């Protein structure tokens, strides 16, 4: 069981490393710039890759399962709103389904994910 966890972590880190170095590009013509990450944001990037990227995309540009986190709507949402969505869930919006609370996510990791997303937003102005 521990080996499965190690393999999953290695895949997530490898994918994230490829993205942050610029070798993984989002689909289409969009290009997402990597961000300089402090320790909290770096940890948040790892948690994000494991817990959020299936729906919101490794590059935060979204998918059919979840909205892009680099857009205007999430730039104006305060950190408490982001944290509440992760810990308590969020209603359906537009073409995206409701978001269930992220099972087992603690408030400290939620704050780290927000730090990562904010760093990526800063590195990718609208």
UniProtKB/TrEMBL annotation:
Pfam families: Cytochrome_CBB3 (PF13442). InterPro entries: Cyt_c-like_dom, Cyt_c-like_dom_sf. Keywords: Heme, Iron, Metal-binding. Residues 39-121 form the Cytochrome c domain. GO terms for molecular function: electron transfer activity; heme binding; metal ion binding. The keyword Metal-binding applies. This is Cytochrome c. It comes from Methylobrevis pamukkalensis.
């Amino acid at each position: 069981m521990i080996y499965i966890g190690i393999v999953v972590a290695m895949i997530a880190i490898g994918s994230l490393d490829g993205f942050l170095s610029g070798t993984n590009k989002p689909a289409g013509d969009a290009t997402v710039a990597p961000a300089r990450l402090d320790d909290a944001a770096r940890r948040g990037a790892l948690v994000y890759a494991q817990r959020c990227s299936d729906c919101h995309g490794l590059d935060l540009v979204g998918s059919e399962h979840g909205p892009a986190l680099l857009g205007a709507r999430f730039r104006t949402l305060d950190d408490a709103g982001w944290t509440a969505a992760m810990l308590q869930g969020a209603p359906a919006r537009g073409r995206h389904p409701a978001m269930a609370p992220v099972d087992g996510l603690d408030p400290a990791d939620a704050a780290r994910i927000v730090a990562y997303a904010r760093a990526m937003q800063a590195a990718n102005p609208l």
